[in-house]
């Protein structure tokens, strides 16, 4: 089995947060790749977050306005673990996720 390349991270991929957001939301779906390193590796991503029960993160202000739209939250890839890759034939688990805390992702 070949090792998955870090630059293959794309929209729709699932990630785990190293530290759950607000102590609850530990998973995310990549909505957008915000920036890349000079080596074209992902640096910052925008996520829709969800918890262990599948509840999406919605900002309190949106709820008070009666809007039940999932909120975006931005993260540096060093805060994430690549969990599953979205593919045409479904999701595939990443057997050996890259270490995004390495210097090449911080440049």
Short key terms for the protein model shown above:
mainly beta; 43% strand; 107 residues
SSE layout:
Blueprint: E1 14-21, E2 25-36, E3 42-50, H1 60-64, E4 72-76, E5 80-87, E6 90-93
Antiparallel strand pairs: 1-2, 1-5, 2-3, 3-4, 5-6
Structural account:
The protein is mainly beta. The chain has one domain. The chain contains one helix and six strands, in the order E-E-E-H-E-E-E. Strands 4-3-2-1-5-6 form a six-stranded antiparallel β-sheet, with no helix packed on it. It is globular and about 40 Å long. The model is unreliable at 1-7 (pLDDT under 50).
Brief summary:
By secondary structure, the protein is mainly β. It has 1 helix and 6 strands; from the N terminus they run βββαβββ.
Oligomeric state of the chains in view? single chain
Number of separate helices? 1
Order of helices and strands: EEEHEEE
Query: Average pLDDT, to the nearest integer?
Result: 85
Quote the distance from N terminus to C terminus.
29 Å
Overall body shape: globular
> What percentage of amino acids are in beta strands?
35-45%
Q: What summary fits the major beta sheet?
A: 6 strands, antiparallel
Any low-confidence stretches, pLDDT <50, length ≥5?
1-7
Query: What count of domains describes the coordinates?
Result: 1
**Backbone structural class:** mainly beta
């Amino acid at each position: 089995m070949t090792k998955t390349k870090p630059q293959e991270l794309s929209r729709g991929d699932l990630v785990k947060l190293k530290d759950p957001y607000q102590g609850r939301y530990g998973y995310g779906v990549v909505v957008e790749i915000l920036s890349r390193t000079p080596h074209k590796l992902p640096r910052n991503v925008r996520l829709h977050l969800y918890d262990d029960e599948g509840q999406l993160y919605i900002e309190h202000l949106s709820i008070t306005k009666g809007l039940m739209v999932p909120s975006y939250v931005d993260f540096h890839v060093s805060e994430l673990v690549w969990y599953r890759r979205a593919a045409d034939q479904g999701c595939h688990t990443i057997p050996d996720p890259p270490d995004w805390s390495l210097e090449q992702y911080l440049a």
